[in-house]
TrEMBL record:
EC annotation from Swiss-Prot or TrEMBL: 1.3.1.76
Organism, scientific name: Parageobacillus thermantarcticus
Domain Siroheme synthase central as annotated: residue spans: 117-143
Catalyzed reactions: precorrin-2 + NAD(+) = sirohydrochlorin + NADH + 2 H(+)
Pfam families noted in UniProt: NAD_binding_7 (PF13241), SirC_C (PF22440), Sirohm_synth_M (PF14824)
InterPro entries reported for this sequence: Met8-like, NAD(P)-bd_dom_sf, SirC_C, Sirohaem_synthase_central, Sirohaem_synthase_N
Keywords in alphabetical order: NAD, Oxidoreductase, Porphyrin biosynthesis
Protein name according to UniProt: precorrin-2 dehydrogenase
PANTHER family the UniProt entry points to: SIROHEME BIOSYNTHESIS PROTEIN MET8
Classification of source organism: Bacteria, Bacillati, Bacillota, Bacilli, Bacillales
């Protein structure tokens, strides 16, 4: 059983071994989280090459060697060659986070299927048992939590900051936080206008 966490990898060094479609998919997730990425592969997809040309990552056009993992915080082995992936697993240090795409048992973390809606992040993992099932669940959740829900979460964040700065009474704060988080409030729409009504009601 894994221990779910949200990692802040902004500006942290991530090394991806492999230049195929699986590697490219992993790279996009790392880029979304603002990781500092190095790709090690003798060949790469057109997408990876474009990212390298745009300065979004560093591409070492070579086969893997253990020194490629120096200073890496996150290591992802995503080649279609088991012997290379095994070499990566053996070269990784105990303190490094490592994901072997074709060998969950050799990994100490798994990359979940992810939905991002503004500040809302939903991650689905089967612990490496079936990435396909994780993707199926992700698609189902994506229909429930659409872009409009993402805007609602962003609204909640802005509201929370405003309430913390401007509402001194702790009981009033709690009531506001509870009310704006209710499903009925979210479904009403016109959130800013309804918040103003709430503020007036609380002050009366």
């Amino acid at each position: 059983m894994g221990y779910p966490v949200m990692l802040n990898i902004a500006n942290q060094h991530a090394v991806v071994i492999g230049g195929g479609k699986v590697a490219e998919r992993k790279i996009h997730g790392l880029l979304e989280a603002e990781g500092k990425i190095t790709v090690v592969a003798p060949a790469a997809t057109a997408g990876i090459q474009q990212l390298a040309a745009a300065g979004k990552l560093v591409w070492r056009k070579k086969t893997f060697s253990p020194d490629d993992l120096e200073d890496a915080w996150i290591v992802i082995a995503a080649t279609n060659n088991r012997s290379v992936n095994e070499a990566v697993a053996k070269a990784a240090k105990p303190y490094q986070l490592i994901n072997i795409a074709d060998d969950p048992e050799r990994s100490n973390f798994h990359v979940p299927a992810v939905i991002r809606r503004g500040r809302l992040t939903i991650a689905v993992s089967t612990g490496g048992a079936s990435p396909t099932v994780a993707q199926q669940i992700r698609r189902q959740l994506a229909e429930l939590y659409d872009d409009d829900y993402g805007r609602y979460i962003d609204f909640l964040y802005e509201c929370r900051q405003w309430i913390l700065r401007n509402v001194d009474d702790e009981q009033k704060r709690k009531k506001l936080f509870k009310t704006i988080a209710e499903e009925s409030f979210q479904k009403k729409g016109n959130w800013k206008e309804n918040l103003q009504h709430l503020l007036k009601e609380i002050d009366e």
